[in-house]
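It would be a great kindness if you could assist me with a short task in structural biology. The matter concerns a single protein, recorded as an amino acid sequence and a row of backbone structure tokens. Kindly check, if you would, that the fold set down in the tokens agrees with what the sequence suggests. Thank you for your consideration; the sequence and its tokens are set out here:
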Amino acid sequence: MKETIYTIPINAAFESAAQDGLCPVCSLHRGLEADSLEYILGAAMMEPDVRRETNRLGFCARHWEKMLAAQKRLPLALVTQSHLAELARNPQAKLADFESCYLCARVGAFLGRYYANIIYLWQSSPEFGRLFDSVPAICLRHSAGLVRCAKTALPKKESARFIKSMSARAEKSLSALHESVSVFCRSFDHRFANEELGEHKHSIERAAAYLVGEKL
């Protein structure tokens, strides 16, 4: 398969996931978020169009925490200053949509493009289709995103085939996680006190990562 600027990160994420078993779309999502945080605390703060949007939308609690952790105090102070000025002029806007967030919107838009490109590659490249199938798990959050995209991006027959494949993958992952968490729960029963837990020791963390995405 010929590599292009949009297939390179997708192929890299799926190739890595085929080896480590982690969700490849989580990897892409984390990269988008890291790039967006660097962007908003860098040159973007001087772009009038961006500042208008950050003033209007603000940021969610999670992204405020990440921006504060970045320790770029002056850029963040300037963004905060103009956002507060906008709120003072029109507090009703934020009261009507408190959950709005510039970074969530930006990451979501780029993630939607990744979904569309993944679906396109799955449909058009047998090589990527085999790579896609070799990935042990795609988290529930990103599986749902891919399914939503497939419903609009693919013909009905292809969409049904993709959704059937994703459903089978999800069923397998959920069944394995349920079994692993059950083993962990059973370890608190004195009758199984000497049973070796092994990887089941981290079953709750793995279940959480599958259900909502890894550290997202």
Q: What stands out?
A: The mean pLDDT is 92. Residues 1-136 form one domain.
